[in-house]
Inverse folding.
């Protein structure tokens, strides 16, 4: 068993970088499964040409985020997650990454938010990064 699976499903938020997920992860976009993996980097800056995946565009885009939790939280599930349960990340059209299943978000300062439902920013404009605050609408995010 990999370290990620022993820790459950984890989304690490490094300063100025992508959302780094480990565990049992399924990514869905436009009603299709686009990835089933145990390790993936998802774009947080909104500039990747390979959305929802990170292509390194944050480096040249001036994406400067400390990777801390400034607001927002994941909502706990109704039941304890089963060991090895998959988290499904749904890419809302022109919107956030919707969390469906057990996930622990770990900020760069060690603060955590654990739950089974929520919305993570992928446009880079949210004031509550890594969580969505609806800024994608004003920012004109497409993805």
């Amino acid at each position: 068993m990999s370290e990620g699976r022993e820790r459950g499903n984890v989304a690490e938020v490094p300063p100025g970088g992508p959302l780094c997920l480990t565990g049992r992860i399924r990514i869905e976009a436009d009603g299709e499964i686009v990835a089933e993996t145990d390790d993936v980097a998802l774009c947080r800056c909104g500039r990747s040409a390979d959305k929802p995946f990170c292509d390194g565009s944050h480096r040249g885009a001036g994406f400067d985020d400390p990777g801390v939790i400034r607001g927002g939280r994941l909502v706990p599930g109704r039941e304890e997650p089963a060991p090895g349960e998959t988290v499904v990340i749904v890419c809302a059209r022109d919107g956030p990454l919707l969390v469906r299943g057990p996930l622990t978000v770990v900020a760069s300062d060690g603060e955590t938010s654990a739950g089974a439902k929520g919305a993570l920013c992928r446009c880079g404009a949210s004031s509550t990064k890594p969580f969505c605050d609806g800024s994608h609408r004003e920012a004109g995010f497409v993805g």
Observations:
- The CA atoms of residues 17 and 59 lie 8 Å apart.
- The first strand starts at residue 10 and ends at 13.
- The two ends are 34 Å apart (CA to CA).
